[in-house]
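worker-03 picked up job from queue 'complexes'. Input manifest follows; two sequence lines, order preserved.
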Amino acid sequence: MIESQSPLYDAFKGILNTIDKNRVQELLTYMNTEAINFNLFKNNAFIERKFPFDIIPRIVSPEEFAYLEKGIQQRIYALNLFLEDIYGAQKILKDGIIPSEFVFSSKAYLPAFANTPVAKNIRVHISGIDLVKNSVGDGWVVLEDNLRVPSGVSYPLSLRMLTRKVFPEFFEKLPIQGVRDYPKKLEDAMNFVNTGGINVILTPGRYNSAFYEHSYLAKESGAILANGEDLIVEKDKVYLKTYNGRKARVGAIYRRLDDEALDPVEFHPDSLIGVSNITQAYRAGNVALMNSIGNGIADDKGIYYFVPAMIKYYMNEEPILQNAPTYLAFFEKDRQHILQNMRTLVIKDVAEAGGYGVVFGSQLTKPEREKLKDAIIAEPRRFIAQEVIEFYDIECLNDEGTFSSRKADLRMFSIYGEDIFVWPGGLTRFAMDPTSYIVNSSQGGGFKDTWVLKEQR
Amino acid sequence: MILISPQVAEHLYWMGRYIQRAESMTRLVIALFDKILDEDFDDAKAFYAKLGITLEYDSAQMFLRQSVFNLEDASLCETINSARENAILTRAHLSNRMFSRINALYLEYKNAKEERTVSLYWLEGTLKELDAIWGNLELSLVEAKESPLIQLGKVVERMDLNIRLYDSIEAALMDVEKLNSIAEKVRPNHKHIALSSSNRYKTLQTINSVFEALTTAHES
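worker-03 finished. Artifact:
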């Protein structure tokens, strides 16, 4: 179901109908030449892949953005307080808002980092909140909070910069909010927590799916892009090695690798992409890591269930944004509901990400359903279930100039520095298959830009 | 302080080398094509044999196809791919224009490998593109810090090829002054690089170890 067309979308289409369609090809070539890739690993093989995109943007009204902005700010503020608490006094557990066992049984909770203070008490520096717009009730629903290494911001940003060059008509005639200050905001946030030294973006390397993004953000924010082996820790301080033998002190690192890969001394000894003893420098307060170590507990798919309660607990406010109706197999009553209603639910493995481990009960065969039931009974902490949300489709332009509709979500990005900045844009991801609800980039989904309009005076 | 890591420095250097190699190879293929047509049909086979490469062809067109696309690890297409791979790894340090020119050339070759035959006209287009890439580097302010490393790759490759392909140490030695001037920018106060024309092997070895000598850590 497509969202009822707004005057804004009509205005967009009115302009689209007048433009020279040859320029669509020009835009495709432009994107291709810039190698705006989101790479994939399939069957253990690296596939360098253009990130498929569609030129029709998602258009968000100023009122809708103001609502989303407030909701995301509230959510991030609460999640940050949760992390400060959970790695500190753990009041929310003591007060029984979240069962302690539920937190402590999560692999993402890292007790070794309890009572490790972080610069300016900020842990959720960069976040990506995944939302869909429900066709029932017309409201936005949060599907996931990504608080570790959310990727994707560079794609709509790059597309916007190129679209402005190829199709200036849209930007002349529609009041579209600018988005190009994202790298500057990132730089400001890095400077805000910097403990003295240069800013670095730490990449797992060329074969990471989002290496393009790492390069792009480093270049645009003025940070140095580094691999693990470019950094060295001496006397609990991090340095960038330079080719002429000198070393530059590093004060803030926007790391684009997971906790487990970050430090072979602290985590997996076989990690080849991390930096030995970087966690020591972090513990000593000599380097800011963005995002902080241990954030995974806050974007655990099970903890998601408790975010509305966190908002009430820490902020004494009602949540602005709604969660999808969720059941935790961890709770006996919920588990029974899940087991009895599997056909109508979507079941998620909390340990998975990127659209993996998401199963629609309606699509399972009977033996598959029974197998999943057994797994849920055996490991209830591992699973959540949600009501299937019939979120809106969005129009895409086909090669032959016709339109088709696809399921699409919206990832909105925020940067927590001096305040919480919600980027007036976003990564709209759409399913390539018209029957699919899975929009994830790592599952082959495409993307669109998101145009947030300015207030009309 | 120049904030370029050892790895990035190496990739910038090799990007310079591969771009230069692509240029030299393109010129060579054009020259050999002419020889095949006008002088000696087997000339290109003999030339590639000097490099330890077996090249088989039964027509001038086939020679083009082989040398441009099919020679494993030694084709022009593979050389451009290597230049582009190093550009990918250093793109945070490159201007958009520099990167996209290299990538566009790579894409052109990638597509052409599947879709088209090779012509001299097309190869001349490659030379123009490579000229534009070098010109871009000369003029760009973005790569000011990186440029000496790329230029170092360029001049080392040219000297290496002059000796290896054309047996001309003299031609290589003409670049020594330039090499020292670039080396000074890569590492101020480096030891002057001196080369002699008496020993081909030693000269090649010295040229190819310049980057390592300039980037080995001596200070902290």
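worker-03 released lock.
The interface with chain A takes residues 1-10, 88-89, 91-93, 96, 99-100, 103-104, 107, 149, 186-187, 214-220 of chain B (CB under 8 Å).
DSSP finds eleven helices and no strands in chain B.
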